[in-house]
Design brief:
Elements: E1 2-9, H1 22-28, E2 29-32, H2 34-40, H3 46-57, E3 60-68, H4 77-93, E4 99-103, H5 116-128, E5 134-138, H6 146-151, E6 154-157, H7 166-181, E7 187-192, H8 210-219, E8 226-232, E9 246-252, H9 255-271, H10 283-293, E10 327-331, H11 346-353, E11 359-364, H12 366-375, E12 380-385, E13 397-407, E14 410-412, E15 423-425, E16 429-434, E17 438-443, H13 453-456, E18 467-470, H14 477-480, E19 486-490
Helix pairs in contact: 3-7, 4-5
Amino acid sequence: MRVAILGISHETNTFSIVPATYEEFEKVHILRGEEIFDQFADSQYTISGYIQGAEELGFDIVPLMYAVTGPIGTITKDAYDRLSSEMLGMLRDQGPWDAVLLSNHGAAVSEEFPDMDGEFTRAVREIVGPDVPVGITLDMHANISKDTVANTDVCVVWRTCPHLDAKLRGRKTAEMIYRTVRGEINPVQFIEMPPMLVNIVKQFTGQEPMKSLVDECVEANEIPDVLDTSISEGYPYSDVEEMGMSWITITDGDHELAEKVSKDLAASAWERRVDLNRPVASIPDALRQAEERYVGPKPEGVENYLPDDGSALAEAEQSDHSHLGPIVLMDVGDNIGGGSSADSTHILKVAKDMGIEGYLQSLYDPESVEACVAAGVGAELALDVGGKTDDMHGEPVHVVGTVSVIDDGPYEETRPTHGGFRFYNDGKRVLFNTTDGMTILLTSQRSGNTAREQMYSMGINPEDYRIIVAKGVSSPRPAYQPIAAEIIIVNSPGVTSADLNTFEFHNRRIPLYPFEEPDYTP
């Protein structure tokens, strides 16, 4: 059995002014052939699950090409044409195939194709024909179209946010495609797309209301003839028609059952739509709460509970030390994993005005990095940091301090991470300690805070800080929940703001909750 692996993975923020060019993909990964194995064989990503499935089930996988870049703006026509032409050419020229496994994100938008994933799966299907099984595994923030489901035999979505089960779900896709090729199952899919969103601040699957919805989705797998169920939270910063939540049920040859299960699961979420869109704390309120609730540092070696087995994320275990450790503020408006700028200063400015000490955050600022490198380690200088990408993420903030560490940027994380990634690169980076008690990690590449090793590798011990700002919503949790006394979600401005009324949508469905109150009956 010979199975091809390929994919284009991108979460497109259509409100971002930074285009996803071919060069942006080159900065992260354009992998060909064995490079794919080298990158993912020992990670926890979807492709790792494909590799595991091939090894355990005994079929051959042929890695063709995989391209990914961070969540930024719309994919240019040039980038999509060059990437898709090369990898689809490989698929065409190196066949025939018994099956195909795709690794896309599911929320990709190109200049030519608003539903890029639907177009890509259409092109794959056209090449291999109607009888070759095609499986795809998508991110939980996918905006899934009916076309994507129609073009594939098996469409599986991750079930945890932060994303800890990418490998597990990839393994499930591989197994179902393997069984399809062997004639053991006849997968039939149905997608239900209710007219609703879940706000980004309510997408953590370890808390209600999402926890119960995921639990219900998992429980539905116990129904006879149900092969798999998926819940997709959707990605609210892609202005496309399919933007929003969706449910996919795969059955063994039973279309009516697939439709019923998907509709029943969607109906349960519809009843919780108000809770799925409740607001969170403002910047001043979050900082005041953090100052009031901080008790002290967590003892060395003590961490809160974080399962790494792919199950839904749990709350920290209550123990004698559960109230100790830094207070972590999630900077929603500068969510790097959602396509933001990585240089928002909104929280930093308020914290500085409030005189907060013991404060830690990262900032994308190549200009300041360059100035620090020129000055050298130990130099004292004044900088205007952050707020340089656009006018949505604050003004540069004036700081005075010392260049403490200069580093080239790569680091490796072996602890659980959002998405299962292992290798990271901040670009040239600098540890800058200000005279008023703040620590700022300046980077020359846009970087989120999904791995604690980002700080350790610079000599920063985050456990020693009072307040840590993590740029994201759920993605930093695997890194910081184990050491945090508390996590506070902050409704900060920016291109990934939780306040969706700050964005001008032109292509979304109407009516769509919470913008309107649709008359929806599953």
